[in-house]
């Protein structure tokens, strides 16, 4: 297999991709992540994952490139990463006691060939008293994460239930990715 590049700066995605036991490098794509607010989440994460993968693929033509993007969605509103503590608080208050969706889009590129998919996971939060939200914000964990929480960290205590792929919430649906990558390699012979 030609070299594999993960178009990401996320340490979590890097850790998850290691489960595939294929050597790879990771590179920050530095793309503009702004999107049209009216875009449906499924299309938005696919579009952003494509942008990330394409930025790297333009420089490394003979490599496989994987791009990924994660957003949290509540009542149709896409929540990205909080821009401030107040924004993080607003997001956690919105998510409290409710079920939201986490969408992760993945794009695999090899030359002109492309495979795109998105996973949706439903996550239900406990009712969160203000003191718990403040304590969680104090941990510093919310700020580089979509929706302002990390299910894999202290954020685990906020979550009552999930339906779908846990790893997709963390940022990379590894088991589906392994299957899609294998199918694409088989197609290309
Ligand atoms: C909901 C949730 C999100 N996240 C993370 C996954 C993503 O890394 C991040 C969403 O931002 P993304 O823009 O998808 O990714 P990123 O900026 O971290 O990395 P890159 O664009 O370089 O690939 O939120 C968690 O780690 N845990 C969670 O529970």
UniProtKB/TrEMBL annotation:
GO terms for cellular component: cytoplasm. Its EC number is 3.6.1.9. Transmembrane segments: none annotated. The active site is at 69 (proton acceptor). CDD domains: Maf. GO terms for biological process: nucleotide metabolic process. This is dTTP/UTP pyrophosphatase. Belongs to the Maf family. YhdE subfamily. Keywords: Cytoplasm, Hydrolase, Nucleotide metabolism. It comes from Peribacillus simplex. Coiled coil: none annotated. InterPro entries: ITPase-like_fam, Maf-like. Nucleoside triphosphate pyrophosphatase that hydrolyzes dTTP and UTP. May have a dual role in cell division arrest and in preventing the incorporation of modified nucleotides into cellular nucleic acids. It is found in: Cytoplasm. Its main location: cytoplasm. Gene3D superfamilies: 3.90.950.10. GO terms for molecular function: nucleoside triphosphate diphosphatase activity. The record marks 12, 70, 152 as: Important for substrate specificity. It catalyses: dTTP + H2O = dTMP + diphosphate + H(+); UTP + H2O = UMP + diphosphate + H(+). Its cofactor is a divalent metal cation.
């Amino acid at each position: 297999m030609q070299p594999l590049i993960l178009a990401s700066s996320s340490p979590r995605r890097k850790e998850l991709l290691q489960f595939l036991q294929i050597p790879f490098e990771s590179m920050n794509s530095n793309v503009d992540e702004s999107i049209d607010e009216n875009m449906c989440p499924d299309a938005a994460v696919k579009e952003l994952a494509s942008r990330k993968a394409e930025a790297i693929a333009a420089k490394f033509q003979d490599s496989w490139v994987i791009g990924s993007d994660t957003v949290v969605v509540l009542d149709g509103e896409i929540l990205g990463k909080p821009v401030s503590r107040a924004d993080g608080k607003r997001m956690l208050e919105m998510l409290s006691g409710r079920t939201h969706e986490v969408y992760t889009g993945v794009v695999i590129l090899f030359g002109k060939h492309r495979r795109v998919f998105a996973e949706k996971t439903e996550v239900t939060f406990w009712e969160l008293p203000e003191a718990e939200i403040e304590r969680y914000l104090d941990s510093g964990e919310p700020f580089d994460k979509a929706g302002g929480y990390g299910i894999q960290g202290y954020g685990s205590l906020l979550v009552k239930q999930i339906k779908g792929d846990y790893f997709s919430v963390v940022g990379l649906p590894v088991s589906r990715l392994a299957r899609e990558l294998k199918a694409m390699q088989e197609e290309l012979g």
